[in-house]
Amino acid sequence: MTASIETTALVQTKSAGARAATQIDLERFRAPFSLRCGALLIDYIILVGILAFSTLVARMLGGGTRSSGDSAETLGIIIALVVGVLNFVVLAAWRGRTLGKWATGLRVVRRDGQSVGVGRSLLRHLVGYPLSLLPFGLGFLIAVVSTQGRALHDMIAGTVVIRDTTTRRSRAAAAVR
Questions:
Q1: End-to-end distance of the chain based on CA atoms, in angstroms?
Q2: Exposure pattern of 111-138 as b/e (b: 16+ CB <10 Å)?
Q3: 3-state helix, strand, coil in the chain (%, to 5)
Q4: 100 pLDDT more than 90
Q5: Which of 23, 25, 98, 175 has its CA 20 to 30 A from that of 115?
Q6: DSSP state, residue 63
Q7: In a domain, 65, yes or no
Q8: Average pLDDT in the 106-130 region?
Q9: pLDDT (mean) for 108-136
Q10: How far is CA 106 from its chain centroid?
Q11: Number of folded domains in the chain?
């Protein structure tokens, strides 16, 4: 009877140690605020670029009739919305990164190190981002003063943004071969 109690205690200690090791790794690879800003800037440049291009096309087509210009602008808005949903929800849920985070080498994970998933991605981007923007963007600036480097939308969704070192390691291993 004593042996089974000790075995249970050892298993519990081991799993608690694994959780602590995951937390240490997340703290070690925490993304700096400047890279997070750069990733968000890249994401929004893509969306604004689509809207600017569609507006330019609408102005070129709208010389004599306004209906063709309006349809080009509407199509640009629809494309920007689809790209936004694909970028901020689908890619973030599937790979843990948006196009901007991919370009800057960042990844979004849950606090326990697992992948984000669709529900958390929707919560983070469709609920958390607007709430982070509401009080003059102060929800984003929480990441600067937070010891864990998490913004308001990260706290709401239970996520953390980390540097993705796996791609660098795989490229370095491929270069050695």
A1: 53
A2: beeeebbeebbbbbbeebbeebeeeeee
A3: 75, 5, 20
A4: yes
A5: 175
A6: S
A7: yes
A8: 88
A9: 88
A10: 8
A11: 1
Residue 153 sits in which domain range?
A: 29-176
Q: Which residues contact 152 (CB under 8 A, 6 or more apart)?
A: 128, 131, 132, 138, 139, 140, 142
The number of CA neighbours under 13 Å toward the Cβ of 67 is 0
How many CB atoms are closer than 10 A to CB 170?
10
pTM: 0.72
Question: Which residue do the tokens 């090791």 mark?
Answer: 21
- Cα–Cα dist 133/26, whole Å: 25
Asked which of 17-31, 84-98, 124-138, 158-172 is least confident by mean pLDDT, the reply is: 17-31
At 35-80, the pLDDT tens digits run 989 999 999 999 999 999 988 888 887 655 556 567 888 888 999 9
Q: Per the domain annotation, does 8 fall within a domain?
A: no
Instruction: Give me the DSSP letters along 108-170.
Output: EEETTS----HHHHHIIIIIIHHHHHTTTTHHHHHHHH-TT---HHHHHHTEEEEE--HHHHH
> In this structure, is residue 7 part of a structural domain?
no
Which 3 state secondary structure label does DSSP give 1? coil
